[in-house]
Write a structure and sequence with these properties.
Distance between the termini: 10 Å
Strand order of the largest sheet: 1-2
Largest sheet: 2 strands, antiparallel
Shape: elongated
Helix content: 25-40%
């Protein structure tokens, strides 16, 4: 969905412009909330879904240390507010632009297959869903070679997304509500 108020969208009833309230809902503002955000403020607003994802992803960075008794201890209120934070050492290879080993049987491939099997089991006729997923995984893997990214055909692995999005991603479409 476009995030621009007034953007042209195609609906079942024809083509029309996107309204301010629709953009607000797309950013995660509840339908029942009457928003008084200006056009400019709404355009600069970060999606609630991004904040939710970031807060979940970063929550482990600021965990409190535990004492010998196993109870959580509070760090001092003064000084460096990150003094109790866990230090994370990142492997520079993660950011060098080379994908993980995508070959058949690799840890990456095995995990994708396990996730696919788990997701397929949530559908009627899970074997058909599973075999369709294997074909999609092959298309996805074909976008890489030994040198790295070699895009040919975009293929989303729908089962790697939250389950509430599976149906739209699996069928290749999303509806505007």
């Amino acid at each position: 969905m476009p995030n621009q108020i007034g953007a042209w969208i195609k609906t079942e009833k024809g083509v029309r412009r996107l309204m301010k309230e629709e953009v607000a809902r797309g950013l995660g503002i509840n339908k029942g909330c009457k928003t008084e955000l200006s056009h400019k403020s709404l355009q600069r607003t970060t999606s609630l879904f991004h904040w939710e994802y970031l807060s979940f992803s970063l929550q482990h960075l600021f965990s409190h240390p535990t004492s010998a008794s196993g109870k959580t201890t509070q760090g001092p209120k003064t000084g460096n507010h990150l003094s109790g934070a866990t230090t994370i050492t990142l492997d520079n290879d993660v950011f060098n632009g080379h994908p993980p080993d995508l070959s058949l049987g690799s840890p990456w491939h095995t995990l994708r297959l396990a996730n696919l099997r788990w997701a397929a089991d949530h559908y009627p006729e899970p074997d058909n869903i599973y075999w369709d997923g294997i074909q999609r995984l092959a298309v996805h893997r074909n976008n890489y070679n030994s040198e790295g990214l070699d895009p040919k055909q975009l293929q989303l692995l729908w089962w790697e997304f939250p389950s509430e999005h599976w149906e739209e991603l699996r069928n290749g479409h999303a509806r505007i509500s």
